[in-house]
Q: What sequence folds into this?
């Protein structure tokens, strides 16, 4: 715990503050981090699933989550929370994170959290061993490893102030603006900082001077510390005590600002909310004197601080405590960056050979690869390598739904269009456009409703009742002629495959209990092929470890229908080619098959 | 500044509003009124009949204590408890007609130190409550360090500062539960509390401490309160609120006012305008006018930097030269910065330096983290354009030092604008030590 952050530290950023996050990622790129320092963003009101950021000249996507719990679940190793919520919600966000656990550091930027709430929050964090930086802070930085949000300012300033690589000073301030200034002064007069924290301006902040200085005492990279205190409070005396008790042995340079306050009896608030002297010993002068008496290096004024830094640095260097730093190479950020308009996450044609989700096409195409069309679908649709039992199930589905004769509406439309002399693609899409809630849609519908019933533990009778209230016939139930006694052999095949190869089929098992009830009412109310496919797809995804939310998303985005579309495309093309071969003339529907009833339009 | 003093009348009003929640075992008549003159008091008597029917006590309600020793508590005409409505009204008019001296410290009954002199503008009037000295108690609560502290004493109405030995002090960590707090209060009821009152005192103290916490008081003192069975009188109260909790206390506090303390200059319209702008902005705009005639004015970005500039001016030029203190930070818009700059320029160009020297405007700041320097400087430039003639009339030298996002453009723009407008200006970036422009300005 001696180091606040390392080069592997990752944060969850609460609030989609794109400019601050971009600053972090620019920093990451410049110092050559492998992973972005922001693993995820919590954006409670956003609808997007990710936010694009520049990574050098390139772009990366940082995932967005609705709440901290989901973000933490997806990125359990991100142990820093950057709480950029407003003063109205910052407390709740912090408390939620503390209750979730797994955060080592929480930084809070809001100024003016109600004091009683801030005290409770800080005490809870302290008891849990969580370091709170802030409230009312610009953050902290471990140069060369991790930087919070805007601290350090622009990349140019960061490099000028040597904040891109570790120096030897541990810096602690209250003020965020002066933090930057001091980094600059330390870079000019010494070799930069090893770790720096702006503890925040509110009266009650989480980690105080002494907490940070004690950690820096244990951090071997820190050779000396610089503390910039303020009029008001007694925190500086804790540092003096720690020196007297031998807990801090590294040299400290310190100065308390607010020496002016002594000239004004009351009524003028100099500086932060935390800055108000209630007693003589809380004045800046008294604290500067006490620190000097305790052996801390105290300059004669703030104006004299640079000289004091140069003096202490020179001494430590002469003693060999500090050695010369080899300046590391840095990555330059291109001056012109263009945001990309399109994003692709499934395939890539930039290399020697195009890939499907990272697999060269040749590695999945030929029979000797052992891969089938189910594998290709799992790569291009789901960006995952599904196991054999799942890819073969997908293929079974594709084959099963490939065609259902010329009379169904989609095939009929394709045939009529082909006979009008249209091309293969035109005829095909006419057929495909028929697919929807009434034609093919039962797969989606069955998955959705059966899953809902199962998730909510509805008994078959309750489920039937529920569907009755919705006013929809149960999707996936019922066949024109087939019944329990005369089963649909496609369904039999699917069920058999699932029984032999699926790890388990909870939703199918449930659907079969529903089928028992429906068939007891009417013989042909069986689980039909659409229903079986939809339900088994859910069982497949569950067995593959997808969360219920992810499966619900597959259903709502129409992924199930996509299997039907892919499969039935084969059949439609067959019908179109059939028409082309037969060279049948333009189709005209017989008039005696149409009921004409056309009344004279009324005038209104 | 999070902790703000409120009037005694408002403190009582807040407690009365939540009385049954915190003090269900006690009654409080809440017979109290705040007025600014005698006529107002008399006209209130129509509604508040106790004003005419009961003997009264009147005192100023303006955030200062030791009103008795300052001779500013009216409780007797000829003898204690005979103050009529007419008498109270005429006393209020008399005391508010001329400036009054108020001392803040006393040695015994002899005032020490310098008094502050100002008009009395607000008075609190209540019924005179006959009671025994033994029925008076003391209670207060505040936050010390990280903990809450409850102070209780069997001796009410005393000078607490001089009688600390009679006060029982109980400290509570923020993490203590309701049950732990209650048990601790019960275990620490001052020994001298009359045996018959012990249970009542404990109940009252528990309710008091709970009200202090839940209603987000930063300080709450009743000295004394009178306990007569289940009847409570709050004779004197002092309170501060944690105003950062204001957003969640609108209902509980009602419409609350934070008055300027007695003898302090009333906030000028300029300061109030800045406060108003600050409250509406996500950025921070703060202004205190210290000496409107002084020569050095500061327009500094950032809370920490503003202190450092003030320190350095006091060190190098002396405080008599420092006109104002304030800061703008947190990424204010161009418009907000312009407004802030115009307010300052307006104040500093009202008169020439009495000694005939040039005035100094320090546009200072550290290296900004995220505030766009060029954008804020655009606001300052717009203000220059408006006030250039006046600035030239009084003679103003401008010293600029700033760093941060877009600072090169900001410095270039402000230099060009000042040159174009014929204003004297010197401009520095992060290579110059943050407060070094103060030295340059003082050395002239």
A:
């Amino acid at each position: 715990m001696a180091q606040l952050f390392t080069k592997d530290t990752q944060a969850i950023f609460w609030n989609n503050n794109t400019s601050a996050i971009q600053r972090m990622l620019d920093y990451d790129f410049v110092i050559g981090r492998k992973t972005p320092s922001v693993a995820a963003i919590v954006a409670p009101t956003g609808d997007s699933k990710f936010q694009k950021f520049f990574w050098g000249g390139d772009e990366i996507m940082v995932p967005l989550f609705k709440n901290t719990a989901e973000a933490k679940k997806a990125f359990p190793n991100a142990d820093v929370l950057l709480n950029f919520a407003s003063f109205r919600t910052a407390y709740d966000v912090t408390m939620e994170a503390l209750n979730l656990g797994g955060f080592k550091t929480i930084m809070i930027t809001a100024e003016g959290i109600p004091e009683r709430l801030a005290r409770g929050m800080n005490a809870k964090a302290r008891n849990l061993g969580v370091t709170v930086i802030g409230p009312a802070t610009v953050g902290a930085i471990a140069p060369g490893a991790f930087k919070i949000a805007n601290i350090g300012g622009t990349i140019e300033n960061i490099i000028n102030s040597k904040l891109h690589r570790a120096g030897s000073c541990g810096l602690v301030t209250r003020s965020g603006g002066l933090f930057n200034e001091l980094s600059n002064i330390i870079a000019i007069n010494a070799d930069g900082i090893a770790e720096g924290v702006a503890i925040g301006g509110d009266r009650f902040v989480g980690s105080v001077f002494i907490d940070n200085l004690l950690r820096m005492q244990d951090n071997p990279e820190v050779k000396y510390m610089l503390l910039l205190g303020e009029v008001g409070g007694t925190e500086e005396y804790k540092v003096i005590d720690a020196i007297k008790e031998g807990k801090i042995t590294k040299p400290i340079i310190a100065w308390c600002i607010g020496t002016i306050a002594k000239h004004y009896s009351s009524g003028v608030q100099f500086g932060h909310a935390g800055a108000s002297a209630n007693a003589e010993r809380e004045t800046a002068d008294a604290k500067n004197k006490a620190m000097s008496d305790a052996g801390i290096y105290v300059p004669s004024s703030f104006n004299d601080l640079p000289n004091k830094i140069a003096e202490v640095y020179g001494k430590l260097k002469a003693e060999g405590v500090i050695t010369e730093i080899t300046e590391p190479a840095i990555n330059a950020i291109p001056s012109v960056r263009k945001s990309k308009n399109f994003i692709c996450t499934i395939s890539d044609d930039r290399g020697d050979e195009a890939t499907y989700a990272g697999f060269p096409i040749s590695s999945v195409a030929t029979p000797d690869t052992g891969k089938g069309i189910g594998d290709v679908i799992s790569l291009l649709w789901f960006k995952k390598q599904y196991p054999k039992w799942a890819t073969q199930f997908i293929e079974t589905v594709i084959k099963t739904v490939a065609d259902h004769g010329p009379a169904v509406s989609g095939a009929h439309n394709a045939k009529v269009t082909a006979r009008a002399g249209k091309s293969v693609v035109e005829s095909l899409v006419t057929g495909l456009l028929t697919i929807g809630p009434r034609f093919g849609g039962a797969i989606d519908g069955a998955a959705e409703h059966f899953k809902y019933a199962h998730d909510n533990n509805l008994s078959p009778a309750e489920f039937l009742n529920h569907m009755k209230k919705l006013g929809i016939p149960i999707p996936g139930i019922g066949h024109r002629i087939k019944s329990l006694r005369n089963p649909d052999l496609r369904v039999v095949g699917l069920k058999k495959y699932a029984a032999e190869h699926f790890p388990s089929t909870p939703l199918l098992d449930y659907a079969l209990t529903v089928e028992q009830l429906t068939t007891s009412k009417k013989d042909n109310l069986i689980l039909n092929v659409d229903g079986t496919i939809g339900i088994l797809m859910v069982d497949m995804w569950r067995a593959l470890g997808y969360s219920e939310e992810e499966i619900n998303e597959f259903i709502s985005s129409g992924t199930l229908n996509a299997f039907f579309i892919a499969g039935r495309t084969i059949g439609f093309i067959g019908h179109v080619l059939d028409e082309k071969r037969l060279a049948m003339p333009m189709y005209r529907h017989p008039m005696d098959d149409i009921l004409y009833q056309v009344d004279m339009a009324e005038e209104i | 500044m999070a902790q703000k003093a409120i009037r005694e009348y408002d403190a009582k009003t807040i407690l009365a509003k939540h009385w049954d929640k915190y003090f269900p075992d006690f009654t409080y008549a809440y017979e109290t009124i705040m007025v600014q003159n005698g006529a107002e008091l008399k006209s209130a008597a129509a509604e508040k009949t106790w004003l005419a029917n009961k003997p009264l006590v009147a005192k100023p309600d303006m955030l200062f204590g030791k009103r008795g020793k300052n001779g500013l508590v009216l409780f007797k005409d000829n003898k204690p408890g005979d103050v009529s409505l007419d008498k109270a009204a005429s006393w209020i008019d008399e005391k508010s007609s001329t400036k009054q001296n108020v001392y803040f410290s006393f040695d015994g009954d002899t005032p020490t130190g310098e008094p502050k002199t100002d008009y009395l503008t607000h008075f609190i009037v209540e019924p005179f409550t006959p009671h025994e000295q033994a029925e008076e108690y003391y209670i207060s609560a505040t936050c010390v360090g990280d903990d809450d502290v409850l102070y209780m004493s069997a001796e009410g109405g005393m000078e607490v500062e001089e009688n600390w030995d009679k006060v029982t002090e109980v400290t509570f960590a923020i993490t203590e539960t309701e049950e732990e707090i209650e048990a601790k209060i019960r275990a620490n009821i001052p020994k001298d509390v009359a045996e018959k009152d012990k249970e009542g005192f404990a109940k009252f103290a528990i309710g008091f401490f709970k009200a202090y916490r839940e209603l987000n008081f930063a300080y709450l003192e009743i000295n004394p309160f009178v306990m007569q069975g289940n009847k409570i009188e709050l004779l004197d109260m002092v309170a501060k609120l944690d105003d950062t909790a204001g957003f969640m206390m609108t209902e509980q506090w009602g419409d609350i006012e934070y008055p300027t303390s007695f003898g302090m200059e009333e906030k000028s319209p300029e300061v109030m305008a800045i406060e108003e702008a600050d409250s509406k902005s996500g950025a921070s705009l703060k202004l205190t006018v210290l000496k409107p005639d002084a020569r050095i004015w500061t327009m500094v970005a950032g809370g920490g930097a503003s202190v450092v500039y003030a320190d350095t001016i006091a060190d190098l030029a002396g405080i008599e030269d420092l006109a104002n203190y304030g800061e703008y930070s947190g990424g204010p818009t161009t418009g907000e910065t312009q407004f802030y700059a115009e307010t300052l320029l307006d104040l500093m160009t009202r008169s020439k330096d009495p000694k005939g020297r040039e005035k100094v405007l320090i546009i200072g700041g550290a290296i900004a983290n995220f505030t766009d320097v060029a954008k804020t400087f655009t606001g300052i430039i717009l203000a220059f354009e408006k006030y250039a003639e006046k600035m030239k009339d009084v003679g103003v030298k401008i010293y600029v030092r700033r760093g941060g996002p877009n600072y090169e453009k900001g410095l270039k723009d402000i230099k060009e604008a000042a040159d174009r407008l014929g204003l004297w200006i010197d401009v520095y970036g992060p290579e110059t030590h943050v407060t070094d422009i103060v030295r340059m300005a003082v050395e002239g």
Chain A has a mean pLDDT of 93. Chain A touches chain B through 66 residues (CB under 8 Å).
